[in-house]
Amino acid sequence: MEDADSTFVEKVKPGDFIVAGKNFGLGSSREHAALVIKMVGVSAILAKSVARIFFRNAINQGLPVLICDTDKIGAGDKIEVNLATGVVADITNGSKLTFGKIPKVMLDILNEGGLIPYITKHRDFEL
Prior knowledge:
This protein has 127 residues and is of the alpha/beta class. It is built from five helices and six strands, in the order αβαβαββββαα. Helix 2 (31-39) packs across helix 3 (52-60) and helix 4 (104-112) crosses helix 5 (115-122).
């Protein structure tokens, strides 16, 4: 994140969201890219599009990645995300955005905190 904002690490707080444009995570083929974002406390990433490998790694790490039109979200806006309904509410400007329904198995993985906690608890997938 340092290339995009050299003060990111100083500003990010647990519960924050990353709001991005197109191709977020492009070139990040290792799970560590998603893991360190989760470790600093980011709750979710909202982006217009995301690199496929980064997307799957993020889900496996328990970090939601939501594909939606992020143009209406301003820097510093307070937002709330409901993973079950697929709605992002921008409390600051009153707008509501939608993102694609998250498949049940992926939602279950996110709710358990990632793939390893999910497999440790359930030992298998219920498809």
